[in-house]
Write a structure and sequence with these properties.
Number of strands: 25
Number of helices: 16
Shape: elongated
Radius of gyration: 29 Å
Helix content: 10-25%
Strand content: 25-35%
Length: about 525
C-alpha cells in the first residue's frame, strides 16, 4: 500500500560563499625568524557541516601542541561553527582574524609538496589587512582562549537565515488484519523527492536560546546576539574594536602579531606555538626551547624558580617595629610576566578598591604584550612602582600551608639583588612614580612589537632615548642601565629607592602616603581589621 506525504525540515543553511574551509599548519617564513619560529593553523574558507571533522583530524595529528588559529572566513553553517568553537575551547587554543600568505607551496597547488617530509608545515606570513570573520564565523571565533581582531581586519554579524526544505515522501506500509482490525507490521520510505523550499530571516526562539547559552558558555556578553538580531540577513554589521572589547568578544585590542609575529619566540619562556628547527633540519620539542637558558652577562644569575614561576601578586604589610601601628603596605610582584599577568593584577586591585598601593617588582621579564597591558593598568590606577624584592617574614606565599593573616603577609623590601629585565621595563614604565635603587639591576634588550612598544613609551611620557637604548642591545646580550641613564632617559622619576614607598618611617610624613594604614591593637574591641 503506497501513500504520499509532505514534510518540512529546517536547516540553517547559508548561501554559497566559495570554497569550504581547510586547515593547514604554517610556519613563519619572516626574515630572521629561523631557527626558532612561530607556527599556527591557517583556517580559510566557508564553514560547512563537514568542517569540524577536518579540524578534529588536524588536532589529532598535532597531539599536545597548542597552535593558535588564524581564521579568514565569510561564515557558513551555524551548527558547524558552534562545534568548531567548542573544539577550539576544549583544546585551549588562541584565535585571531587574519590571512595567511604562503611562501612557495600553498594548499591549492597540485604536486607541489611531493618531495616534502611527512607532516612538515607550509611556510608563510600572516597579516590582518582585508581579513574577515563574518556571519557564523564569530561563533567559531568565540571559542578562543585569547581572541584578537586587528584594526585592519573585519568581524561582522547578521541575522541567521533558516531554510525549510519540503520533501515528497513515498512509503510502503505492510499490515495484517487481526480480529477485524489493521495491525501495522512495517513502514518503509521508498522514495524522496524535492517539493520546494522557503526561507525565514528571523531567529527562532529555539535558535536564540541555543546561541545565548553558547555565548554564556564562552564568556561572551549577550550584546553580540543583540547585534545579530538587529542586523538584516541581507546586510552585515561590522562590530567596532571597542564594542568587541566591551562585549568580551575579543580579549584585548591587539592584532594577530600577538600570536604570529616573528620575534615572539625570543621571549622567555617561548610561547607554546614556537618550534626550533636546527640547521640539521630535525625539529626539537618546544619544551627544549624553553629550557635553554639565555646568558645575561651583566647581572647575577637569578634563582631558578624566579625564571620558572609565573608572576604572582601578594599584599604585604611592613613588619619593621618602628612603624607599628601605622605601617606601609604594598603589592609584591615577583616572577615571569605571562599572558594572564594583567588579569591577575586587575583581580587583586579590585579587592582593594580605591586604595593606591605601590607595586614592588622583581622580574626576569617575559611576555611583552602582557607587560604592555599590566603597565597600562598600573597607569590607569595611578600606582607607583619600584624595583626591589620582598623578603617575607611570616612565610613564603609559594609554600604549602602558608596562609596570610587578614589577607596580608608581613615583610621587608630590599633592592639588593633585585632585577627588572627586558619586558619588565615596559611594565615599570606604567608607574606614576618609578624608582630603581642603587643595588637593583635594570637590564634591557631589543624586543619585538617595536611599533607598539615605542607608542606605549610615548604614551607614558618616557623619553625616546630609552627605546633607543633597548633596541641597541642584542636579544641575548642584555644591557644594564645605570641609575643616571635611567633618569636621563626619563624611565625613573627620581633618585630614590624603594624605601621612599615602603620605608618604616614614611607613615609619619606629611602628607601621609596613601599606602599607610593603622592596624588595631590585638585587644581592641573591634578585633576584625579594616577590610582591604
Amino acid at each position: 500500500m503506497a501513500l504520499v506525504a509532505f514534510g518540512a525540515t529546517a536547516k540553517e543553511d547559508p548561501p554559497d560563499y566559495g570554497p569550504t574551509m581547510r586547515f593547514v599548519v604554517v610556519r613563519s617564513s619572516a626574515p630572521g625568524c629561523e631557527p626558532n619560529c612561530p607556527e599556527w593553523i591557517s583556517a580559510e574558507g566557508t564553514i560547512d557541516a563537514g568542517t569540524p571533522a577536518l579540524l578534529r583530524r588536524l588536532l589529532k595529528t598535532l597531539g599536545e601542541r597548542q597552535l593558535p588559529i588564524v581564521v579568514n572566513s565569510p561564515g557558513g553553517n551555524v551548527d558547524a561553527a558552534l562545534q568548531l568553537g567548542r573544539m577550539v575551547r576544549k583544546s585551549k587554543l588562541d584565535i585571531a582574524v587574519g590571512i595567511t600568505e604562503f611562501s612557495g607551496c600553498s594548499p591549492g597547488m597540485k604536486n607541489c609538496r611531493d618531495n616534502d617530509g611527512k607532516g612538515q608545515p607550509y611556510s608563510g606570513v600572516a597579516y590582518d589587512s582585508g581579513a574577515m570573520c563574518n556571519s557564523a564565523c564569530p561563533l567559531m571565533f568565540a571559542g578562543g582562549i585569547r581572541r584578537v581582531v586587528g584594526e585592519w581586519a573585519y568581524l561582522g554579524v547578521h541575522q541567521i537565515t533558516t531554510t525549510f526544505r519540503r520533501e515528497r515522501l513515498l512509503y510502503r506500509t505492510t499490515y495484517r488484519i487481526v480480529n477485524g482490525k489493521k495491525k501495522i507490521i512495517s513502514t518503509k520510505i521508498v522514495s524522496r523527492k524535492n517539493a520546494g523550499s522557503y526561507k525565514t530571516y528571523e531567529m527562532s526562539k529555539a535558535v536564540e536560546k541555543r546561541l545565548s547559552a553558547y555565548l554564556s558558555e564562552m564568556g561572551v556578553e549577550q550584546g553580540v546576539l543583540d547585534v545579530m538580531k538587529a542586523t538584516p540577513a541581507s546586510d552585515i554589521r561590522q562590530i567596532e574594536p571597542k564594542d568587541m572589547l566591551e562585549m568580551k568578544l575579543v580579549t584585548s585590542l591587539d592584532s594577530l602579531d600577538l600570536l604570529t609575529e616573528r620575534t615572539i619566540c625570543q621571549r622567555q619562556p617561548a610561547p607554546a606555538n614556537c618550534r626550533e628547527i636546527p640547521t640539521s633540519g630535525k625539529p626539537t620539542e618546544v619544551a627544549a626551547v624553553e629550557a635553554k637558558p639565555v646568558p645575561i652577562a651583566p647581572a647575577p644569575a637569578p634563582a631558578p624558580q624566579a625564571q620558572e614561576q609565573e608572576m604572582r601578586f601578594v599584599l604585604v604589610r611592613g613588619s619593621n617595629p618602628l612603624c607599628n601601628p601605622d605601617c606601609p603596605e604594598w603589592i609584591s610582584a615577583e616572577g615571569t610576566i605571562a599572558a594572564g599577568t594583567a588579569d591577575k593584577l586587575r583581580q587583586l586591585l579590585d579587592t582593594i578598591r580605591e586604595r593606591r598601593l605601590p607595586v614592588v617588582i622583581n622580574s626576569p621579564g617575559g611576555d611583552v604584550q602582557a607587560a604592555l597591558a599590566a603597565g597600562r593598568l598600573i597607569r590607569e590606577r595611578r600606582l607607583d612602582v619600584a624595583v626591589a624584592r620582598t623578603d617575607f617574614l611570616d612565610c613564603d606565599p609559594g609554600t604549602v600551608g602558608c596562609a596570610a593573616t587578614d589577607g596580608l603577609h608581613t615583610g621587608l623590601t630590599i633592592d639588593a639583588g633585585a632585577e627588572c629585565d627586558a619586558a619588565c621595563a615596559v611594565m615599570v614604565a606604567g608607574g606614576a612614580r618609578r624608582l630603581v635603587g642603587a643595588d637593583a639591576h635594570f637590564l634591557v634588550h631589543a624586543m619585538g612589537m617595536e611599533d607598539k612598544v615605542r607608542a606605549y613609551l610615548g604614551e607614558m611620557a618616557i623619553g625616546s632615548g630609552f627605546f633607543a637604548a633597548m633596541q641597541s642591545a642584542e636579544y641575548a646580550k642584555h644591557r644594564e642601565l645605570s641609575r643616571d641613564e635611567l633618569q636621563k632617559f626619563g624611565l625613573t622619576t627620581g633618585p630614590q629607592s624603594v624605601d621612599a614607598l615602603t620605608g618604616a618611617t614614611i607613615c609619619g610624613s606629611a602628607p601621609r602616603p596613601d599606602n599607610c594604614r593603622v592596624q588595631p591593637a590585638a585587644d581592641a574591641e573591634a578585633k576584625a581589621p579594616a577590610k582591604l
